[in-house]
Design a protein that fits this description.
The complex is a heterotrimer. Chain A contains two helices and four strands. By secondary structure, chain A is α+β, with helices and mostly antiparallel strands. Chain A has a domain of about 60 residues: Roll (Ubiquitin-like (UB roll)), CATH 3.10.20. The longest helix of chain A is centred in the middle third of the chain and has 12 residues. The chains are: A alpha+beta, B mainly alpha, C mainly alpha. At the A-C interface, helix 1 of A face helix 2 and helix 6 of C.
């Protein structure tokens, strides 16, 4: 069965259609929708004939490995350039 | 014919097409095949990487790789849904993938031999893919353009992850630096072929129909512009003595890629094509009962 | 004679390692479904679950590492197979879906009980971490339950439950399965001297 998924970017905003998923029933649909559309702080609902509220994805242990802010590369890049002899003056 | 001409004019001036709109048969067919190949590629891309989740040398790398691969399967899901709405069910797409009837990108037919490959793939192969994907953000077919937004956003951390792996290796032992260079030497050929043979943009149906907003050569130039400097600044060498930027034209010059090899590989004869498809076929057969059980209730 | 303080630290570290090893090794096994799960949504599901498990392992190893004066990665990868304290249940390679789900169900039940004990243990730091982990495990339990419901009438699933149940509390480091897994898991790391950054 196909379920349509709607997301609310921020509180107060309208729910927008985010996509759809395939699932055998509501229980599976809710679980899958959270995975597909509820990660990284988005909130979602699943509708087709039904609307089910989905709680926000729980990130208790700081998944910065999965976000851009988890990769502070400036220092490493500087050092690597120095090692390779390719660093230039930078007006940072 | 008039209706098709109108449609062509419409998409060429930026018109968007939704799933229930009328579209020429040729447009629908090419579009669906293109999108299906994308879905296949996301799925097949996971197989070379899964071995390295298991062998990742730190917890952080393990986590990042698992997350990356999860994103890619999620992308496949999204993409196949678009194909399904264009009239081809996912199960059929998977059947055709496994039987070799449909294609996936060249890079996923090659082996991953070392941890160096993991870095090079996440850094450069994903970079090449993102360039293609950004050219799809303005796709005339709106449902595809919409999912490309989400896909491009998620890919941003993949490239950073790749670059972090590479930088760490380049700052490490001699052996670690050698891992990167050796992997780069093997992947350069497939990377140069990745964006496809040099068909002029105005002769490329994909560009004419505004499915892609960029020709193959343009994509390749963009890749070289963005990433050769990154490669060189780390002290790595590219295994192509002809590679240089022509100052006058601003274009990169290089040894012409082997287009026969590309054709040979994408038609199912890559070094790892057979056993990766076999793995999927076996898994699919063994789990058929699971899908039955779910349908039954 | 070992002082009570040292014995307490060491017991705590042992407990942390037991749970961390369970989560790490189970995370490995769950990752084995990448690309080959019965359908794509389950591929994503097991990737997500594996990520959580490895994340839990990392947090637990970090606590233990502090107590033992080492790092999480060193605890996760640089011990010998005999020193791992994971359950025999998680060590097994289970390429059949019914056995994977059976393990999932059994593990989540046992883990829920274990986390409950930790939450009420009086060790504030451990209780706090256990509570965080538990809030993520809710979704694992939901997943296990929805599959258990679907497979409950399948004889092969029932057989798998019976087969695997005795293994939950069996802990014997250095089994063949674990040793093979360990060899692969640490092959990259062992290719360079200890302390190399990856």
């Amino acid at each position: 069965m196909i379920y349509e998924v709607f997301r609310q970017e921020r509180k107060g905003q309208a729910f927008q259609h985010a996509g759809s998923i395939e699932a055998p029933d509501e229980r599976f649909a809710e679980w899958y929708a959270r995975e597909q559309y509820g990660r990284r702080g988005e909130s979602t609902a699943v509708a087709r004939e039904h609307v089910l509220p989905i709680e926000e994805f729980v990130d208790e242990l700081n998944r910065n490995y999965h976000r851009v802010d988890g990769y502070p590369l400036k220092e490493k890049l500087k050092e690597a350039r120095e090692r390779a002899g390719t660093s230039k003056e930078r007006a940072d | 014919m008039a209706r098709e001409d109108e449609f062509l004019e419409y998409v060429q001036s930026g018109g968007q097409v939704e799933v229930d709109d009328w579209m020429p048969d040729e447009y629908r067919a090419r579009l669906r095949k293109f999108i299906e190949m994308h879905g296949n590629s996301e799925l097949m891309g996971v197989l070379p990487e899964r071995e390295w989740i298991l062998r990742a040398p730190t917890l952080q790398r393990k986590l990042a790789l698992t997350a990356k691969v999860q994103d890619e399967v999620g992308h496949a899901q999204l993409i196949y849904r678009v194909v399904e709405d264009l009239g081809k069910p996912r199960e059929q797409c998977l059947d055709d993938l496994i039987s070799g009837k449909s294609k996936f990108h060249n890079v996923f037919h090659y082996p991953t031999k070392t941890w160096g490959d993991v870095g090079v793939i996440a850094w450069l192969v994903d970079a090449a893919a993102i360039i293609s994907q950004k050219a799809l953000l303005k796709c005339s077919y709106a449902p595809y353009a919409r999912i490309m937004k989400k896909i491009c956003w998620e890919e941003s951390f993949h490239i950073l992850h790749g670059r972090d792996v590479i930088l760490t290796l380049m700052l490490g032992t001699d052996d670690q630096r050698e891992l990167v260079q050796e992997a780069l030497n093997r992947w350069w050929g497939p990377l140069m072929q990745f964006h496809g043979n040099p068909i002029p943009a105005d002769e490329d149906p994909m560009v004419v129909w505004r499915i892609k907003s960029q020709g193959n050569d343009e994509a390749r130039q963009q890749f070289l512009d963005g990433y050769v400097p990154q490669i060189w600044e780390l002290g790595l060498t590219v295994p192509d003595p002809e590679l240089r930027k022509d100052e006058e034209s601003g274009r990169w010059l290089y040894t012409e890629p082997d287009w026969d090899e590309l054709m040979h590989v994408v038609t199912g004869h890559g070094p790892r094509t057979a056993d990766r498809l076999d793995l999927r076929r076996q898994a699919r057969e063994n789990s058929a009962w699971v899908r039955q059980v779910l349908l039954a209730a | 004679m070992v002082s009570p303080v040292l014995r307490r630290v060491s017991e705590r570290a042992q407990l942390l390692l037991e749970i961390a090893d369970d989560e790490l090794i189970l995370g490995w096994r769950d990752s084995e479904w990448t690309g080959i799960a019965p359908f794509l949504e389950e591929d994503v599901a097991f990737s997500s679950i594996a990520q959580n498990e490895i994340g839990h392992a990392r947090a637990l190893y970090e606590l233990a590492a502090r107590d033992l004066g080492t790092t999480a990665d060193e605890l996760a990868f640089d011990r010998s197979p005999e020193e791992y304290r994971c359950s025999a249940l998680v060590e097994l390679r289970l390429p059949e879906w019914e056995r994977t789900i059976a393990r999932h169900v059994l593990y989540e039940q046992a883990d829920a009980e274990r986390l409950e004990r930790l939450k009420t243990s009086g060790d504030e730091e451990l209780a706090g971490l256990a509570a965080k982990i538990d809030r993520e495990e809710i979704y694992h339990r939901l997943h296990a339950e929805m599959w258990a419901e679907r497979l409950k009438d399948e004889p092969r699933y029932q057989a798998a439950l019976e087969e695997l149940r005795p293994l939950v509390e069996r802990r014997n480091g250095g089994s063949t399965e674990l040793t093979e897994l360990w060899e692969e898991m640490t092959s990259v790391r062992r290719s360079q001297p200890a302390g190399t950054t990856w």
